[in-house]
Design brief:
Blueprint lengths: L6 E2 L17 E8 L5 H4 L7 E6 L6 E7 L5 H9 L4 E6 L20 H4 L2 H4 L15 E6 L38 E3 L18 H9 L16 E6 L11 H20 L8 E6 L1 E4 L7 H12 L3 E5 L8 H4 L1 E2 L8 E7 L17 E4 L3 E4 L4 H6 L3 E5 L2 H18 L2 H9 L1 H14 L2 E2 L11 E2 L2 H12 L14 E4 L6 E6 L5 E6 L4 E2 L2 E3 L2 E3 L6 E9 L2 E9 L1
Parallel strand pairs: 6-8, 6-9, 7-8, 9-11, 11-13, 13-14
Antiparallel strand pairs: 1-10, 2-4, 2-5, 3-4, 10-12, 15-16, 17-18, 19-20, 20-24, 21-22, 21-25, 23-24, 25-26
Helix pairs in contact: 5-10, 6-7, 10-13, 11-12, 12-13
């Protein structure tokens, strides 16, 4: 595997293709008013470009508001509705689907990974793209762009309505002109389309695994039938692009900006980004070489974003000793993924029982194909043969989206009040819900492969109290700072810490200098350590990387 400044786990070739307009985007909201007097003010809304206003009940307290999101941006429409007299509540007028256990997509039978990870059974539980609070789930795909004309993505591509397309103005003031469909941080323009060169394209199959439109009688089904894919491109149009870490950091910060804006505006602006997917990395690198990169994951987590990374595609790579970024970043807001075969054997993936969290199918995956010259000639939109951790990681990313969509009020409140704790809960549902397999023993932390249905069932148990207090023992209010660091560690917690023990990478307890909430490991060698924190009889291990 050849390494560049940032190594994609794929061969990327991108031609300068211009972003293209998608069909008119119709939106509608159901709005509740406190009394029928609301009818008196509806006539005043003509100036706000609502195409339709329809009463839904006899008392005239429920109304349907329809509009074209291109002429009336969604955030503006929501602002108008919230400011109406008698306003109580609103929700998206989401599509309702028959409870089919399988999709009607004609090529879904080629997707061997769907039944393996129990995605088809998970659809019985949740296939929505909106959570219980009405937040539209957005997943950021940081990659080499997307086949924008592909029929299986129509309706599932995130659109930044706050910035109009083609007027040459930074309408939303975020520093990017016309980022209506996203941004290309290598080319520094709004071209997020994938390559026209032969045998190229990586982002399109990755995105298809996550969110190809499901049950639309077209092609395949993504793990999330209904989701908004935020496409963030970090390649340019050259035949051999060199990708720098600075572009990757800018890409992450673009997703972070949209989520921060969403949080601060109470959903009126920005995007409800719940996860990022990184099917790329740097072989042979360690966190001490990229502390700013590693540190960014905790910042993303602070605002409610969980991040997924593909492990190196080198099967002989013991990542702890051989190096791999961002796999080795010691953040609870990063999930690292290896790959498996249809027979659940370890496949084409670096390994570690410390730094690789779980595995997912990654051999001969069937997905959406890129907009390449070869595919245009052959009229090919889908194909088999996508192999590697690049295609395992998006399955876990999609699982995060599914869990977010299914979240009960208890979890939704946690995510709103304490996003860090919310992320830790979701992470635990995914890792503890795996199928433990003999072929993965010694290959990852869990010895397991993704099982979305089991993760949803764990969430159910937590929501209804079956798991009890033990589910809360991740101590999301305990922080180790700085991590990674030089051995001088500060523990911060809202609770009183009763006991602290320190172990080396082999699990042997060491005699660390512990004074209150301060730990001194400066005399010890660099590497991975585990800090065991005990609060009210419950214990939690926190991974620490000493530089």
């Amino acid at each position: 595997m050849k390494r560049v400044k940032v190594l994609f786990l794929f061969f990327v070739l991108v031609l300068n293709a211009h972003a293209m307009k998608l069909p008119v985007h119709a939106k509608s909201y159901i709005v509740q008013f406190s009394s029928s007097k609301s009818v008196d003010i509806l006539s005043e809304l003509s100036a706000f470009k609502f195409s339709k206003i329809e009463a839904l009940n006899q008392e005239k307290t429920l109304f349907l508001f329809s509009f074209n999101a291109f002429s009336l941006p969604e955030y503006q429409a929501v602002t108008v509705l919230r400011n109406l007299p008698q306003y109580v509540l609103h929700q998206e007028n989401a599509q309702v689907f028959l409870r089919a256990t399988v999709s009607n997509d004609p090529l879904a039978s080629n997707q061997w990974h769907l039944p393996i990870i129990k995605a088809t059974e998970a659809w019985d539980i949740s296939r929505r793209g909106v959570n219980g609070n009405g937040d539209t789930i957005v997943i950021a795909v940081i990659d080499d762009g997307l086949h924008l004309k592909h029929p299986d993505f129509q309706g599932n591509i995130w659109i930044n309505y706050a910035d109009s397309l083609g007027n040459g103005i930074d309408d939303d003031g975020n520093g990017f002109i016309d980022d209506h469909y996203g941004w290309n941080f290598m080319s520094r323009n709004n071209d997020i389309s994938d390559s026209l060169y032969y045998n190229a394209g990586h982002g399109t199959p990755v995105a298809g695994i996550i969110g190809a439109r499901g049950n639309n009688s077209i092609g395949i089904a993504g793990i999330m039938w209904h989701v908004k894919l935020m496409i963030i491109d970090v390649t340019d149009s050259s035949l051999n692009p060199t990708i720098f870490q600075s572009d990757v950091l800018k890409a992450y910060n673009y997703a972070l900006y949209q989520r921060k804006l969403y949080n601060s505006s109470n959903g009126k602006k920005g995007a409800y980004v719940v996860a990022t997917n990184a099917s790329w990395g740097v072989d042979g690198w360690y966190p001490h070489q990229a502390p700013l990169w590693c540190g960014l994951y905790d910042t993303l987590g602070k605002y409610g974003i969980l991040n997924v990374s593909a492990v190196s595609n080198n099967q002989d790579n013991q990542v702890d000793t051989d190096g791999d970024m961002p796999t080795l970043c010691p953040s609870t807001h990063l999930i690292t993924v290896g790959s498996t075969t249809p027979g659940d054997n370890y496949f084409m993936s670096g390994y570690s029982t410390i730094s690789v969290d779980l595995s997912a199918p990654g051999a001969n995956v069937y997905s959406t194909d890129a907009y390449t010259k070869l595919n245009i000639l052959n009229n090919r939109l889908y194909r088999n043969g996508f192999s590697g951790t690049s295609y395992a990681a998006p399955m876990v990313t999609a699982a995060i989206g599914v869990l977010n969509a299914y979240a009960c009020p208890r979890i939704l409140d946690t995510m709103r009040i304490n996003p860090v704790k919310g992320n830790i809960l979701l992470r635990r549902f995914i890792l503890e819900g795996v199928d433990v397999l003999p072929g993965l023993a010694g290959k990852n932390v869990t010895s397991g492969r993704l099982n979305i249905k089991k993760s949803l069932e764990l969430m159910d148990q937590y929501c209804f109290g079956y798991l009890g207090i033990e589910t809360e023992t991740a101590f999301p209010n305990v922080f180790v700072f700085p991590n990674p660091g030089n051995g001088m560690i500060e523990l911060s917690s809202e609770s009183i810490i009763d006991k602290v023990l320190v172990f080396d990478a082999m699990g042997k307890q060491i005699e660390a200098d512990i004074q209150g909430n301060m730990i001194d490991l400066s005399a010890y060698a660099q590497g991975v350590y585990f800090i065991q924190v005990e609060i009210e009889g419950k214990r939690e291990m926190i991974k620490y990387l000493k530089l």
